[in-house]
């Protein structure tokens, strides 16, 4: 499998600051932030599956526009996967005819442009030879991470999360884990804000990495604009076994 970074920033502000979105092979999106807007129309049409970690705007902003752009040209619905709570939020607050049309009923409920498919922690979605499993995460709203398994190797994307024991346990049970994409949104001087907003700071990230028994390459995402260099400098002081580095817009990870 191949993951292309369309966006990995914690905000906007600059030519390469796109919020979280990853293209997996040609037909899967992991989250659907502003980075999706850089894809050409043919690439948007090729996307059949969107796996959403949680309902915050920086992770779902492009879903309504994506469906509006390609819905009529598709032969079957675009499927959005997420926790039951996340899908309820999308239905109630986005696809509600007020913020955006309800594409689960357009052109009709028998052949809609959009299908919402709930997944729960531990549940596996198989797409041909590929498997995508929902993992636990701990954020201010219900949230998931995802493990992608190509059969040859695995990649885990945590989504937005603070220190989370169940997630650490799930990672330690993931054999042949090649890549781990984990957020770190705030520097250590904003440790209290990280705790309140249930994000990671470098010290919280270090505590999490200290408990890992697996040995993936660790990539840092969701760096807040303007403080990314400071966050990465603090992470560079981490003295543990794993050596995290910043994820880069446009980077491709294979596994």
Automatic annotation (TrEMBL):
<dbReference type="InterPro" id="IPR036866">
    <property type="entry name" value="RibonucZ/Hydroxyglut_hydro"/>
</dbReference>
<dbReference type="InterPro" id="IPR000396">
    <property type="entry name" value="Pdiesterase2"/>
</dbReference>
<dbReference type="InterPro" id="IPR001279">
    <property type="entry name" value="Metallo-B-lactamas"/>
</dbReference>
<dbReference type="Pfam" id="PF12706">
    <property type="entry name" value="Lactamase_B_2"/>
</dbReference>
<protein>
    <submittedName>
        <fullName>3',5'-cyclic-nucleotide phosphodiesterase</fullName>
    </submittedName>
</protein>
<feature type="domain" description="Metallo-beta-lactamase">
    <location>
        <begin position="18"/>
        <end position="222"/>
    </location>
</feature>
